Protein: cysteine-S-conjugate beta-lyase
Amino acid sequence: MQLETLLANIAQHSNLVDSYGATHLPIYNTATFDQKRQFPNNKNYDYSRTDNPTRNALEDIFAIAEEGAGCVCVNTGVSALALLFDTVLKTDDVILVERDCYGGTYRLLNILLEKNDIQTCYADFTNVTEVESVLQQNKIKLILCESPTNPSLKIVDLQAIAELSKKYNSLFAVDNSMATFAAQKPLVLGADFSLFSATKFISGHGSVVAGAIVAKSEYWAERLNYFSNANGRAQSPFDVFLVSLGLPTLVYRMKTQEQSAIQLSEFLNSLPEVLEVKFPGLPSHPQYELAKRQMEIIPAVLTITLSSAEKAEQLIRNTKLFGEKVSFGTSDSRLEIPSKMSHATYSDEDLKKIGLTHATVRISVGLENVNDLIADIQQALKVETIKCV
Ligand SMILES: Cc1ncc(COP(=O)(O)O)c(C=O)c1O
Structure:
């Protein structure tokens, strides 16, 4: 079954048992389940922290979509990362992480070091030799990366990293928040875990914070479930419902946003005030070929460098359609200066290593008409001349 078909009717395609034939996922907002009033052939429910029919249905759909053995839905994307760490790591383990990662991931890794002596080695995952040399020199328990990375939008060859993880006996997890399973399936490329913030493209309307993690193997799926229950990370049925509302349109939204992002990035590239446009959908992107091969849709996030921090502020202040907001992938376009918002937890030294300055702006392209977005940026920068290209 194609993904669009699966997502068009999740009540039908999930494991939900519903004798009324509900068209959409029913919300079982109940803490407990009466053992004496359950149909004998159904899965037995007990307590909603452990299992809940609404949540289980979404977990089922995510496991099918990511082609994994099982999924756990949790209350935020950060919680999915924390659940991964709870489940696989012990004191003194070492993790290898792509240097360009979400600021909340970086903060969590610093907490792991402080509280559990779990060290993180950082590397540039677009350089497979560099990754292998870290694996040769350290016993790495877990490898973690995003692709595209956030905010530098590098593309990691997930299959190559998965092969290295097997060679060196490490686990490999991919944060699939930006690409989503509509664009790429890390487990099919050899990863052990695919996790994501459903706050972004997956739910798509900025109405909920949510996360999920899918494991390739039954063993890890069961362990994730165990730790989610033990640490109380379960997503509430109402939040599951909000996430589910975005699913039928996910593929169509992402494809429309991709087309707008291509047009917007070409426009931005022609402006003298814009020194650099990073977008994996532009042929000038260093991993353009890999991006096209690895992802069916290029997610609509661009990172641009303006000629000065003042110009970046001018863009932020004067645009009317773009909110100054963190996060990405929603129906509304938004922009932010990562060094001040989503990546403010980075030390100055680490910001420098990933090439972020106050003149760097991340843009998430929404579902507005792209001509309105272009006109908005034009008026914000008071663009009169267009550079010859
Ligand atoms: C790549 C990535 N992973 C994880 C997260 C965390 O997700 P949440 O905000 O839902 O906790 C974010 C949030 O921006 C993100 O960009």
User: Anything to note?
Assistant: Residues 76-78, 102, 104, 146, 150, 175, 177-178, 197, 199, 209, 211, 327, 342 surround pyridoxal-5'-phosphate (CB under 6 Å). The radius of gyration is 21 Å. The chain has two domains: 3-248, 249-381. The mean pLDDT is 95.
